[in-house]
UniProtKB/TrEMBL annotation:
It holds the Pfam family His_Phos_1. It comes from the Bacteria. Gene3D superfamilies: Phosphoglycerate mutase-like (3.40.50.1240). InterPro entries: His_Pase_superF_clade-1 (IPR013078), His_PPase_superfam (IPR029033). This is Histidine phosphatase family protein. PANTHER family: OS09G0287300 PROTEIN.
Length: 181
């Protein structure tokens, strides 16, 4: 590779599931989305469509609230996106999610994870090495339900992803979309 050539950029989108309900007697894994989550997920999906933030692959936690979030987001996207159930990202630490990401095939340039906190916030903060400082300040303050972090990595394949190598491009929260942006 010539000295001035850079490896291709990979884009990682981290989406925390929408606000969930807490029905009595329902196991954590089976908790559904609450009304607020059912409204926020399509708004985030519409934002992704407008901004052309369409993943090639979505790895979705097997928890019901994450699955429902993805279904509502996906309905707003301009075309069908391959989605895979990922039990390995259900309520795990950031380093475990990095291991999942590293196994994604090189043909995937834009990857999305739909999961849970505190792991999603920890993962984003672990991976970010620079980027939009205002967005980073918001992310450090809180990674709310249906929050979306968009990061770029200058790597040839996902197996090369490492802490501190990502550039935060955007961090969007549902309350930011109330004005239609």
């Amino acid at each position: 590779m010539p000295d001035d050539a850079r490896p291709p950029t990979r884009r990682l989108l981290l989406l925390r599931h929408g606000k969930s309900a807490w029905p009595e007697g329902v196991a954590d894994h089976r908790r559904p989305l609450a009304g607020r989550g059912r409204r926020a997920a399509p708004a985030i999906g519409a934002f992704m469509a407008r901004q052309e933030l369409i993943p090639d692959l979505a790895l979705v936690s097997t928890a019901r609230r994450a699955q429902e979030t993805w279904e509502l987001v996906a309905e707003a996207l301009p075309h069908k996106v391959e989605a895979r159930d990922a039990v390995a990202i259900y309520e795990v630490a950031a380093k475990a999610m990095i291991d999942v990401i590293r196994k994604v095939e090189p043909s995937v340039e834009k990857l999305m994870l739909v999961g849970h906190n505190p792991g999603m916030a920890e993962l984003a903060l672990l991976l970010i090495g620079g980027g939009d400082e205002v967005a980073l300040a918001r992310l450090r303050e809180k990674f709310p339900t249906a929050g979306l972090a968009v990061m770029d990595f200058t790597i040839e394949q996902w197996s090369e992803i490492a802490p501190g190598t990502g550039r935060l491009v955007q961090f969007v929260m549902p309350r930011m979309l109330d004005d239609g942006t």
